[in-house]
Amino acid sequence: MASSRSSSSSARVAEPDDRAFVLRVSPYGESDAVVKLLTERRGIVSAIGKRAKRRMVLEPFHTLRVSLAKGGGELFSLRAAEVGQARIGLLSRAEALDAAGACTRWTRSLCPEHTEEKVVFSALERALDMLDVGAAVAPLETAFGLVLLESLGFALELDGCARCGRPRPRGKAALLAGRHGGVVCAACRAGSEAGYTEIAGAVLDLAADDPWALRDGGLAPIVAAAVEARTP
Predict the structure, then answer these.
(1) Please, is 15 exposed, middle or buried when counting C-beta atoms within 10 Å of its C-beta (0-12, 13-18, 19+)?
(2) What is each CA distance from 121 to 23, 38, 115, 117, in whole angstroms?
(3) Domain-by-domain residue ranges, the chain?
(4) Residue pLDDT, tens place only, 141-190
(5) For residue 150, what are the CA distances in angstroms to 75, 136, 155, 164, 195?
(6) How far is CA 212 from CA 8, 11, 96, 124, 192, in A?
(7) E strand or H helix at 95, and its extent?
(8) Any idea what DSSP says for residue 168?
(9) Is 90 exposed, middle or buried (0-12, 13-18, 19+ CB in 10 A)?
(10) Angle 53-56-62 (CA atoms, 0-180°, nearest 5)?
C-alpha cells in the first residue's frame, strides 16, 4: 500500500514543461495570484496560480521551470513553478536590480502576448546572467534595449539617416535621437540640433554589429527613450 500511495502522490506532481521569467505578480484572493510570464516556448502568457503565495517561488530575475495548462479564456493555469537558475549576485546590487527591472518592464510593455519570442527570451536571460556576475549596467541595458527593439521590428537606424535613408559612412560620428528612430543626417535636421546627441562613429558601428560588446554607456538614455516611445 505504501508503494501505491507514493505512486499516486508522484502522479499529482506537475512536471515542468517550459522555462519562464516572472514579469508581474498580481494577488488574487487570499492565496492565489495572476502571474504574467515570459516563457521560452509560448512567449508572454498570463496564468493563475492556485495557492501560489504559499507553494510557489515567483520572484523576478530567476529562471523558473514551470508547468502550464490551458485554462478558461486567455488565462493559463500555473500548476507548478520552481527555480531553475537563481541569480543571487544580481540581488545584492541596487543598480543591477534597477537595470533588471527596466529590462523586464520593457519586455512586458512591448512584447505581444501569446507570441513566441525566443530572441527576446534569450536576450533577457543573457542580460540577467551578465548583471548577476557584475557587468556594467549602462552598456548592458543599452544592448538589451537594442536587441529588443530589433526583434520586435522597431530597430534604431544606425547605419544611415532614419528619415531619408542616406548612408552613414563607417566610423563617422552622427547625431542620434531615439524619438526619431535613429541617426538623422544634417539635411533632415533642418538646422536644429535640439534633442540630439552626438555619438562617436566607433560606438555606432559596434551598436549595429554587436551591441553586447558595448562598453560605453552613452547610448543608454537614447535607447531607453526609444523603448519608452514604443510603450503603449
Answers:
(1) exposed
(2) 12, 7, 12, 6
(3) 2-85
(4) 999 999 999 999 999 999 999 989 999 999 999 999 887 789 998 888 77
(5) 28, 22, 4, 19, 22
(6) 48, 44, 16, 12, 32
(7) helix 94-110
(8) P
(9) buried
(10) 115
Cell of residue 85, nine digits = 537558475
| Coil vs helix vs strand at 140 | helix
Q: CA–CA distance from 148 to each of 140, 158, 171, 227 (Å)?
A: 12, 15, 24, 9
Phi first, then psi, for residue 42 (nearest 5°) are -110, -5
CB atoms within 10 A of CB 35: 26
**HSE, side-chain direction, 13 A CA sphere, residue 108:** 17
Which residues are within 8 A (CB) of 156 and not within 5 positions of it... i.e. 6 or more apart?
146, 149, 162, 176, 178, 181, 182, 222, 223, 226
The C-alpha cell that represents 227 in the structure block: 523603448
Query: What gap in Å lies between CA 52 and CA 35, rounded to an integer?
Result: 9
Cα 105 to Cα 101: distance, rounded to the nearest angstrom = 6
State whether residue 81 is helix, strand or coil: strand
pLDDT digits (tens, 9 = 90+) for 183-228: 998 888 776 666 789 999 999 999 999 999 999 889 999 999 999 9
**Cell representation of residue 159:** 547605419
Q: Which CATH code fits 2-85?
A: 2.40.50.140
Pull the grid cell for residue 194: 535640439
Q: How far apart are CA 39 and CA 36, in angstroms?
A: 9
The edge-to-edge listing of strands for the beta sheet with 197-199 is 182-183, 174-177, 197-199
- Cα separation, 4 vs 190, in Å, equals 79
